[in-house]
Design a protein that fits this description.
Elements: E1 13-15, H1 37-47, E2 53-56, H2 63-70, E3 74-79, E4 88-89, E5 102-108, H3 132-148, E6 149-159, E7 162-164, E8 168-170, H4 172-180, E9 185-193, H5 202-211, E10 218-225
Parallel strand pairs: 1-9, 2-3, 2-5, 3-4, 5-6
Antiparallel strand pairs: 6-10, 7-8, 9-10
Helix pairs in contact: 1-2, 3-4
């Protein structure tokens, strides 16, 4: 740590710093699917400059807004069910911005219907990743991100894989990466490790042994560029 901020890691393994790094807390750690502040911090310092515009179409508890404001970036946060007043109510499948307008898009999308992201019936997080509909709806988000992003600029997308007793393992991350490659050029794939992952409990260990699956304490971060 340098000056109370996480350093830019030179490797492809980024550990999640606390949500409260820096001068103020970032987002709400109690929010289902809360975005890691340290990941956003690394991204904007690597791929944007002061006063660049960052857009988060699925803003959740507002972590992206908090990080960008503290680091001198312009930011717009949208969500289908806003959790606070500075998040604009909007569906990520139709973003109210002009073409080629944004310097970076950051998305931490639902990974399926594994948690309750909101009570809005139109939330993509109400759709199971076991269905094609889930990927079709995420592709609508990707198309909008492509439209609003300036050429040569970066989109960063966090996504996790899926395992359930009935469905088994579903490589959600690979499916999403294949979809994104229709529109963007790959820059990097980062493995995000969360400290104190809740799957590292005795109950999950017993399930893993009983049903023969690996415990996962990571998510994918896809970094891609608009041609």
């Amino acid at each position: 740590m340098i000056d109370d901020k996480p350093i830019l890691h030179p490797t492809t393994l980024w550990d999640f710093p606390k949500q409260s790094y820096g001068k103020t807390p970032k987002g709400d750690w109690k929010f289902n699917g809360v975005t890691p502040a340290g990941a956003i911090y690394n991204l904007i310092l690597r791929y944007t400059k002061l006063s660049d515009l960052v857009v988060d179409p699925m803003c959740g508890s507002g972590t992206t807004i908090d990080v960008c404001k503290e680091e001198g970036r312009k930011v717009i946060g949208y969500d289908i069910e806003p959790t606070r007043s500075d998040i604009i109510r909007n569906d990520a499948r139709k973003i109210p911005l002009s073409d080629n307008h944004v310097d970076m898009v950051f998305i931490d999308s639902p990974y399926g219907d594994n948690v309750n992201y909101s009570d809005n019936p139109n939330c993509i997080g109400k759709i199971s990743c076991e269905t094609e509909e889930f990927y079709q709806e995420l592709e609508k988000v990707a198309k909008e991100a492509y439209r609003i992003l300036k050429p040569g600029k970066i989109i960063a997308w966090i996504i996790g894989d899926h395992w359930r007793k009935k469905s088994g393992f579903i490589p959600v991350g690979f499916r999403v990466h294949q979809m994104l490659e229709k529109y963007f050029q790959p820059v990097d794939i980062i493995c995000l490790i969360r400290r104190n992952q809740r799957s590292n409990t005795n109950a999950w260990e017993q399930r893993a042994i009983k049903y023969n699956f690996y415990l996962r304490g990571f998510k994918h971060l896809f970094i891609m560029k608009k041609p």
